[in-house]
Amino acid sequence: MCIFQDSIGEKEHDIQNKCPNRLVPCAPSCGLPDDLVFTILLLIPAKLLHENMRFISRFWRQTITSPCFITNHLQISSAHHTHGLLVDFPCHQNNVAFYIKPPTSGDANPEFRVTELAKPPFDCRIRGSYHGLVLLQHEVNRDQFHVANLVTKSIVSLPSFPKFANLSTENYEFSWTGIAFSYSSSINRYKVVIATHPYIKHLKQSQTPPQVWVYTVGVDQNWRKLEVPAGIDKFSLWCALNPVQIPFHSPRSVGGFVYWSGISYPYAYGVALDVDTELFQRFILAPTTKRGILNYYWIICLQTGLGVVITYKGGNLWRLYELTDLKSSKWTKIVDIDARAILNQIKNYLQSTGLPSVTPIVYTNDEKLWFLSSPSSANLFYYNMREELIVPVPLNGKDIAAYHHVNTLLTLKNC
Whole-angstrom Cα distance, residue 391 to residue 408? Predict the structure, then answer.
């Protein structure tokens, strides 16, 4: 059984009220007030704190490893928008992931900051990130999952995922695309959510509705199967007959919800799971139809919620919406984007003959839209909306996965 050593707490709580006696008295040789040392250390990146700063003195080590400091460091990092993207490549020769932070306005060095984070010494894929903790799936034994902090190199293994106990792996294969890592603020715990379909081999068709399972890290002994409401289950079963249109597919985990999307012509629907209550809700995506024609769309993560990018005018215009009310399926337009200008800039960069295929993945508060372009291998870009400029990231490879991420000092321990 494994639990988290550090408590996150809610961001709304005042730091001073939560930690009135947060410091061990500082040694006289330090020469600085304890509160000032605490505040200065909060501004230092997590990787530097863990690998260097905590070894300077006993006092600094006690401060940096205290649960209160770790909680405050996460809050400061998130509030100051020091998060970036965690980029994962399968089978990378050095077995590392990359933490990427783009330059911000006013930076003395207008270059990308790319930090290598070593993954565990086995083949694995990153399936999600939350508060600096990442969900890992074993590449070979795909029913094996782990939660790790790639900065502190702490890791905990979860029980094997049960799949479908009554189905033979000789006749069936399983979809692993419905994996999400989220956080329940009501119990201050992290949850892994998996929705999977069994497919008849060679036919790529499913006779069984998707099943949704959840595991609460530090609480559950085994995976728990969730009950999917009848209305959602019927919709899921219909989409499962066409593997291209699966609602429990490529989930987005943000703001205490896990979201899936699917198509039931002429509308696009979504299914949301409230991570706290573990209840499902069906909703309609932003205005994806016009005169009965379904427009192409991408579900993306915003820093505070769910977004969708919808194409208009033959793909020359992208419109970004944010889901502002799940219950009423209310979407609010954020911005219109000149897609033709983006595609032409990427075409020139890649020196391709035709317009490239792109997939938006993340939109950040500093008005940067991140996306992948994949003619043969994947290239990562972001579009700076203020400057109307495409910026390539100095990384490329096949099957890139990218997640909102912030490096933290949150640790796991066995008990």
Answer: 27
CA separation for the pair 306, 291 (Å, rounded) = 25
Given a cut of 60, is residue 235 above it in pLDDT?
Answer: no
Nearest CA-CA partner of 65 in 112, 118, 12, 22: 22
Position 264, amino acid: S
What tokens were used for 218? 């530090």
Higher local confidence (pLDDT), 102 or 111: 102
pLDDT above 50 for 343: yes
Task: Confirm whether pTM is higher than 0.85.
Answer: no
Whether 378 and 397 have beta carbons less than 8 Å apart is answered as yes
Contacts 24+ apart (CB under 8 A), 341-347: 341/388, 342/318, 342/383, 342/390, 345/389, 345/390, 346/373, 346/379, 346/381, 346/390
Q: Is 333 helix (H, G, I), strand (E, B) or coil?
A: strand
- What's the CATH architecture for 2-77? Up-down Bundle (1.20)
Are 124 and 181 contacting, i.e. CB atoms less than 8 angstroms apart? Answer: no
